[in-house]
Amino acid sequence: MASGIKDKVVILGMGCSKFGERWDCNAQDLMVEAFEEALADAGIERKQIEAAWLGTAIEEQHLGKSAVPLAMTLRLPYIPVTRVENYCATGTEALRGAVYAVASGAADIALALGVEKLKDTGYGGLPQRGRGALNDLFWPNLSAPGSFAQLASAYAAKHGADKGDLKRAMAHISVKSHANAGKNPKAHLRNAITMDDVMNASMIAEPLGLYDCCGVSDGSACAIVTTPDIARGLGKKDLVAVKALQVAVSNGEEVQYDQWDGSYFATTRIAAARAYAEAGIKNPRDQVSLVDVHDCFSVTELVTMEDLQLSAEGSAIRDVLDGFFDADGPVPCQIDGGLKCFGHPIGASGLRMVYEMYLQLSGRAGARQRAAPTWGVTHNLGGFPSQNVAAIAVLGSYGA
Amino acid sequence: MSATDFGILSFGAYVPRARLQRKAIAAANSWFAPGLRGLAKGERATCNWDEDSITLAVEAARDCLVGFDRDALAQLVLASTTLPFDDRCNAGVVANALQLKSALRTLDATGSLRAGSTALAAALDGGGYGQTLVVAADARKSKAGSVQEMHYGDGGAALLLGQGQPIARLIGTHSETVDFVHQYRMHDKAHDYAWEERWVRDEGYLKIVPRAVAALLERCAVDPATIAHFCMPGTLSRIGAAVAKRIGLPDDAVRDNLAAVCGDTGAAHPLLMLAAALEVAKPGERILVAAFGEGCDALLFEVTPAIAGTVQRRGVKGALAARREDGNYMRYLSFNKLIDLERGMRAEPDKPTQMTVLYRNRDMIQGLVGGKCRRCGTVQYPRQRYCVNPECNALDSQDDYAFAERHGKILSYTADALTYSPDPPTYFGMVQFDGGGRMLMDFSEIEAGKIDVGLPVRMVYRIKDADAMRGFVRYFWKATPA
Fold first, then answer.
1. What is the CATH number of domain B5-184+193-335?
2. How far B351 CA lies from chain A's nearest CA (Å)?
3. Labelling A110: which of A51, A187, A213, B233 has CA 20 to 30 A away?
4. Contact B413/A142, CB-based, under 8 Å?
């Protein structure tokens, strides 16, 4: 049995650009913005970085293929640099590469950087694009909100949930995330909204309205990781360690086998169980201090609360409406605004979630700082409910 | 009647659900063409954006083949004046959708409103080749504000011919070919050009059709007074009755040309009217079909006692009953490329089709064929190399499993207003098939507010995407309320 990643790797420094409509920036400018902050935070020089991972998803919109754009932009000194892409879970995959490199001993200090420049598309939402030669011949004509909206119909049918209650819980999720982002200067959407705003917004993909959908943003986030010994040698104290890092990828059972009911993420449930075991979390609802999940759409966040064992099955609507996941609730969810309001520059999102946990666990989260958090969980999801990539990270104080 | 008589074994029909209201056409155009007001009665069938002559033909053929062994077919003829492909056997596309065996003769019949009737007559007279499916379908195009826009309709009909227990036997055929140009359309033109109706009536219908019918009846020694059903398409006012009178047919033999409820479906219409006659005909009755167009085809049938045993099918009645009133003339214009709507940037992405990919996966895509595992029995789509059942995962263990004629239920759905569609919102979702297997797929013909988890659905063959850059249309299957 593998020993896992717990406490083998710590965060030396992190950075995150301002997310939003960065009309003045190329992807390269966003990368530099995140990298400069991370490098200063780590207190090292770029030549100390021994390996790097670039996470970016829709490269044809900005950087083009390969890891070369990262090496060229940051002037990395001919080190191994790898580009990864795994749908919207790309950011966590970049981190996984860097963390595993350090854990294996192949590199003392490694870099993970995620970036996406989405606002050069010419229209709102994600770019419309092909999905592979054969897939295009039979996949439905779907948008991202359309694919995730499927969850709502299946969830309501499975639990006999009133569609109005479901819509109100989804609205509460969005209102909460806007309120949280108001305290985050780097967030894309910082305006407060009301339940009425959400309920009355134009329909994007039934029952998801405009405010049930996350921001499509430009941005970059960056992590520099190393071993606990090296971090201490560099004078770092109160280290934030990676406690678990788990990915589960659909093998076709959801979309092709007759078991899955369409109301949850099979991958998230599996990855979460593995991550909690790796980190040593026995009772997530009581133990997790904070969670940042892949709230690409409000309904995604709702069902994910159950998949992460933070709500009992069928009770997420009630927990959400009770404020269980509000900033002042027992387990705040999206305290930084989440994808919904911090924004969703695809390749950066997984790293952005970890950035928030790092700040919270270091006591540097400013106006949104929670008192004495111990476990921070990030959930980064790519794809469609019926076939996807779920990537989960657990962060905590080193040695705790 | 001997046990292995040759004749019509089965019939089928399809009419698109959308019925454009003629008063909507008149309301939009009478400022320019006030004469249209006089035609503003009833409705005409019109294709959805994802229908064309090929999809109409597939649906009519499926209706016709209910209860028949498709492997018995030796020949498929597709007749239409609106075939999507000038060079690619359109009948072959239909054959693949129907999953007919490759040992099959196919032929596209086109170039005339008589394409359907001539194809039928030829197949009947050359009956020795084996079981033949004659399908006729037209998705007719016309200029905005034209009289044709009022008269035309879209639809398809199919007839299965062969040895067996025919529901109708052929008595005889006669064809006249006269280069009488009442309307025409050259290769590079989108719409028909028509000459004055009074000339078409007097010099065309009233002279050419009686000549053809008289020749046929004389040769067959049949008294016109014994004809029970007279099927003659024609958009001229009361033309059926006028021709019948000239020939000496009983008044009540003249069959409704479906103008009020469907419109004239071009090359399909003689077959559609014949199918409608077969739905009500009694054993021993004679049916006369006369199709006009640069001449005339006349076909005479006698209905057999086997008509009583006809299997349940949708037929013309069912197709006409499955209707959706459409008063949106602008949408009709857009679907028929008569107006250049701003479609937005989401409509811009290139949609090429790799012929190699399409060919390798032709049964999966065109025929909706998945797999059934011989080891564990799991039904699945698509048929991958390894079985999807996690307790099995056997390699190359699956037999073909056809989903097209199977029903299912909606497991999840949405109405997607963001993705580009010619007719937003796009409805799609997961379908769980009765008997196993599931697919995330497009839906068609969903009406707002009339969809929910559990809704029973069936499969229909439709246009998936159009590739404007290379001029290609690709097809796939969609779920529609059962």
1. 3.40.47.10
2. 8
3. A187
4. no
The amino acid occupying position B141 is K
Q: What is the largest CA-CA distance in chain B?
A: 75
What is the per-residue pLDDT across A182-191, written as a single tens digit (0 to 9) for each? 999 999 999 9
Delimit the domains of chain A by residue range: 10-120+218-233, 143-214+239-397
- Where does chain A have alpha helices with state H? 27-42, 68-74, 90-104, 135-138, 144-159, 163-181, 195-199, 228-233, 253-256, 266-279, 284-287, 298-307, 316-321, 338-341, 346-362
Domain boundaries A143-214+239-397, corresponding CATH code: 3.40.47.10
For the stretch B427-455, pLDDT in tens is: 999 999 999 999 999 999 999 999 999 99
DSSP string of A222-248, one letter each residue = EEEEE-HHHHHHTT--S-EEEEEEEEE
Fold for domain A10-120+218-233?
Answer: Peroxisomal Thiolase; Chain A, domain 1 (3.40.47)
Exposure class string for A324-361: b at 16+ Cβ within 10 A, else e: bbbbeeebbbbbbbbbbbbbbbbbbbbbbbbbbbbbbb
Contact check, Cβ <8 Å, B426/A140: yes
Question: CA-based angle A66:A70:A71, to the nearest 5?
Answer: 100
In B, minimum Cα distance to A160 occurs at B453
The domain segmentation of chain B, as residue ranges, is 5-184+193-335, 347-368+403-481, 373-402
Q: What percent of chain B has pLDDT over 70?
A: 99
DSSP annotation of A167 reads: H
